[in-house]
Specification:
There is one protein chain. The chain has about 350 residues and is mainly alpha-helical. It has one domain: Glycosyltransferase. The chain has a two-stranded antiparallel sheet. The longest helix is centred in the first third of the chain and has 21 residues. The radius of gyration is 19 Å and the shape is globular.
């Protein structure tokens, strides 16, 4: 379900009234003006870095990964996530250039974007989040082909999952997680996605879940925080919160604490923030997981750590380059805005 900026602003006006309505959406669940201003200031500095450093071709040349379609996709999603009008707002040109670049890297026959399924998954996510809000008739056909590529790659894979190329015959949790989130975002956007594809993807993920609730890489062995956040998130987005496996995954992720930031920090924050945000299993007035308190606790720590590590330019640095790290850090904060469909509970 998509909201216009005006209707969404009305919906979430639950006490956090400090941000000017000319930029993005107000933040809810936290009620102090100081909190709202801190998140907004940090987010806008990060968006400012991305928009200043993007080149005319729509990608980034400040590191070795900034021209990867998947990284461009995450940057576009981070800009969209602030909630400014993507067709007439201050970042319309940045969004357009990024989408132009992603579409230019899409194979016209197969729909394959870039040279790896990592790239394809994140780029497809960007197309899905832009579809329906960005006025561009190319988005629908490009997204349809990208989704079909993911589904067809899975059909050829005996594991029912995905790995580095569309021809792969094995699977891993990280690549598969990127494809699952892309498919679920496309479904949210209104495209038909075969339920069997999502079920097969879920079944593979569960085969990689260890007895302690964590997720390994290609099997149950050696679960860690990022992969477990990916597993937890895909189960939540796929509406599998009633499964006992989801409850175990949720507890594993919640019990990681600050150790969840120790390995591939920004990649981890990107998935862990989403997993914890979606970790509640609520029906009516009944919630399992401690209500929103688990999210508030995590979110407060994340805002504090990212504020402390943000550079003077507004960026973050880390594995996979500055563009990726900045985009992933922003998207871990973007759950405060609740603008993107994939970020709605």
């Amino acid at each position: 379900m998509r909201f216009s900026p005006i209707s969404f602003l009305t919906l979430i006006a639950l006490g956090s009234g400090a941000i000017s309505p000319t930029h993005g959406q107000k933040i809810f669940e936290e009620s102090t003006d100081r909190w709202v201003k801190e998140v907004e200031r940090s987010y806008m500095r990060g968006v400012g870095y991305l928009t200043r450093s993007q080149n005319d071709q729509g990608y980034w040349t400040n590191d070795n990964y900034g021209s990867e379609p998947g990284v461009v996709g995450l940057a576009v999603v981070a800009i969209l996530a602030h909630g400014d009008d993507p067709n007439f707002g201050p970042y319309k040109d940045n969004i357009r250039k990024g989408l132009d670049y992603i579409i230019s890297k899409s194979n016209k026959q197969t729909g394959y974007i870039g040279t790896s399924m990592y790239n394809h998954g994140f780029a497809t996510l960007a197309l899905a989040e832009a579809y329906g809000v960005v006025a561009d008739p190319r988005l629908g056909p490009a997204l349809r082909k990208a989704v079909d590529l993911i589904v067809n790659a899975q059909k050829k894979n005996p594991t029912g999952a995905w790995r580095y190329s569309p021809e792969a015959k094995d699977g891993d949790v990280t690549v598969s997680g990127a494809q699952m989130v892309a498919l679920l975002a496309a479904r949210n956007a209104g495209l038909y996605v075969d339920k069997n594809a999502l079920e097969k993807g879920k079944d593979f993920m569960l085969k990689c879940q260890a007895s302690n609730g964590g997720f390994g890489y290609t099997s149950k062995s050696s679960p860690n925080a990022p992969r477990s956040a990916i597993g937890c998130l895909t189960l939540a987005l796929n509406k599998n919160k009633d499964l006992k496996e989801f409850a175990k995954a949720r507890e594993y992720v919640l019990n990681q604490g600050d150790s969840a930031t120790s390995h591939y920090q920004h990649y981890n924050l990107y998935y862990t923030s989403q997993a914890i945000f979606h970790s509640c299993n609520c029906k009516g007035s009944k919630c399992v997981c401690g209500g929103v308190n688990a999210w508030r606790t995590w979110n407060a720590k994340n805002v504090k750590r990212l504020k402390a590590s943000q550079t003077e330019s507004g960026s973050w640095t880390g594995n996979y380059g500055t563009t990726f790290s900045t985009s992933a850090a922003l998207l871990s904060l973007a759950l405060n805005y609740r603008f993107l469909p994939i970020y709605e509970r």
